């Protein structure tokens, strides 16, 4: 969910050569969809980025949609894991402000390829295959849960609603900050949301 990831916090243990290759393709696809969007991500480009030939694709995936679903799942899992990492690295009362500051950072804005897939791809989701939407939805729910668990009233009826609002606001802020070509306006979106959800005195 959060900021630029230098290295994926999601670690998997492929057991054989085919599994290792499969993981390489999914990792390349998870970067590519965030960088170029679903529509702008072709199988040939992903295979080339993974250092493989186009012809080997169907040995690993029955369709492009299945690959996109795995890529969406991987990108979402990385974001959720990073959010949890940030929360665990600070005292409990600092967890939520730290997560918000990481998400609404200029580094995250510039690091679209390794950042939150929802702010990178959300507007494309309604047009995706059900399998892709299902994978993304599962990770969005996890994002909301991570935020909810950091709230002081976690477990109370209002915490889930507050988490929904915070996630929607942070994602929307990042979409707008990336959309405009006015650097001052872009910074303004981030600063306004930070002031609301993670004031400097927190």
Explain what the structure shows.
There is one protein chain. 66% of the residues lie in helices and 0% in strands. It has a domain at 65-197: Tetracycline Repressor, domain 2 (Orthogonal Bundle). It contains 9 helices and no strands. It is mainly alpha-helical and 202 residues long. Helix 1 (17-36) packs across helix 3 and helix 7 (130-150) crosses helix 8 (157-179). The radius of gyration is 17 Å and the shape is globular. Residues 3-8 have low confidence and may be disordered.
List the SSEs and their pairings.
Layout lengths: L16 H20 L6 H7 L14 H25 L3 H12 L2 H5 L6 H5 L8 H21 L6 H23 L3 H15 L5
Helix pairs in contact: 1-3, 3-4, 3-7, 7-8, 8-9
- Beta content comes to under 5%
CATH architecture of one domain: Orthogonal Bundle
CATH third-level topology of one domain: Tetracycline Repressor, domain 2
Helix content: 55-70%
What Rg, in angstroms, do the CA atoms define?
Answer: 17 Å
| Total DSSP helices | 9
CATH superfamily of one domain: Tetracycline Repressor, domain 2
List keywords for this structure.
9 helices, mainly alpha, Tetracycline Repressor, domain 2, 202 residues, 0% strand
Summarize the structure.
By secondary structure, this protein is mainly alpha-helical. It contains 9 helices and no strands.
């Amino acid at each position: 969910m959060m900021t630029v990831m230098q290295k994926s916090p999601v670690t998997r243990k492929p057991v054989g050569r085919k599994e290792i290759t499969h993981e390489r393709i999914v990792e390349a696809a998870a970067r590519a969809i965030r960088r170029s969007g679903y529509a702008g991500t072709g199988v040939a480009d992903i295979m080339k980025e993974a250092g493989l030939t186009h012809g080997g694709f169907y040995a690993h995936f029955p369709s492009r949609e299945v690959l996109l679903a795995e890529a969406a799942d991987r990108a979402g899992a990385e974001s959720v894991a990073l959010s949890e990492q940030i929360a665990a690295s600070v005292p409990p009362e600092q967890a939520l402000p730290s997560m918000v500051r990481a998400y609404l950072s200029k580094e995250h804005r510039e690091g679209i390829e390794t950042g939150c897939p929802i702010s990178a791809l959300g507007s494309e989701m309604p047009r995706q295959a059900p399998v892709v939407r299902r994978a993304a939805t599962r990770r969005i729910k996890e994002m909301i849960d991570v935020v909810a668990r950091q709230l002081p009233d976690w477990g109370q009826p209002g915490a889930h609603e507050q988490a929904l609002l915070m996630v929607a606001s942070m994602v929307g802020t990042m979409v707008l900050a990336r959309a405009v070509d006015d650097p001052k306006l872009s910074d303004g979106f981030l600063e306004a949301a930070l002031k609301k959800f993670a004031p400097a005195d927190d």
